Amino acid sequence: MQFIATFDLPNFLDTLVSLFVAFVLGTAIGAERQYRQRSAGLRTNVLVAVGAAVFVDLAMRLEGSGGAVRVIANVVTGIGFLGAGVIMKEGLNVRGLNTAATLWASAAVGACAGTDRIAEAILATLLILACNTLLRPLVNRINRIPIDEGSSEAIYQVRVVAGNDHVEDIRKALFAELKRAKYPVADIDLDTSDEDATEIVATLVSSSADTDELNSAIANLRTLKGVTHAGWEVSTSD
């Protein structure tokens, strides 16, 4: 049997240690994700860490460090596709980026374990856990700081609701008003879900804007015939 010819007890024990370390460290990372009810929880992070360790360890045994480097490069690419599956876009907001990044980092931990860099794998795990736990209070504190619309990078949208008979005229007027205020339009959408009215949503090119100028433009749009509502909103781009 090929197994008998290729089996080497010291190498097997080395692999056992590498995969066991990847399992334990992946469990530590995944447990924190599972506790916070993330889409990629305990089992997913363990599988990513152990899987990366298996591929890298196998490459190390077959082709040495050169083969391991090539496999690690492909693991990074493969985890990128897996991480994309947990990222969801809801309107202007994107969810799942942190979960995808954690999966990517779990693969890095597994790769370290697969190359017998146990200390590095443990260090990476501690830093990942610190990022997902100890930094949360700092993130919450920053999020409570009011946004300075005049200096922050953000997405600005102007929303105008008009009767269906006046949509084209209002759309042209909206373009003209924003152009006059030197805020060119990057995109414009029409929401026709209402049978009697249409919402015109203009997304601005600018990443910063003056609130007084936007309020002035909105005030002018509200005076137009057929306009039932006009306003603007801002959301962060990150």
TrEMBL record:
It is a multi-pass membrane protein. Its main location: membrane. One of its GO terms (cellular component) is plasma membrane. Residues 156-232 form the MgtC-like C-terminal domain. The chain crosses the membrane at residues 12-30, 42-62, 68-88. Keywords: Cell inner membrane, Cell membrane, Membrane, Transmembrane, Transmembrane helix. Residues 19-140 form the MgtC/SapB/SrpB/YhiD N-terminal domain. Pfam families: MgtC (PF02308), MgtC_SapB_C (PF21770). It comes from the Bacteria. It is found in: Cell inner membrane; Cell membrane. Belongs to the MgtC/SapB family. Virulence factor required for growth in low Mg(2+) medium and for intramacrophage survival. May be involved in regulating membrane potential by activating Na(+)/K(+)-ATPase. PANTHER family: PROTEIN MGTC. This is Protein MgtC. The lineage of its organism: Bacteria, Pseudomonadati, Pseudomonadota, Alphaproteobacteria, Hyphomicrobiales.
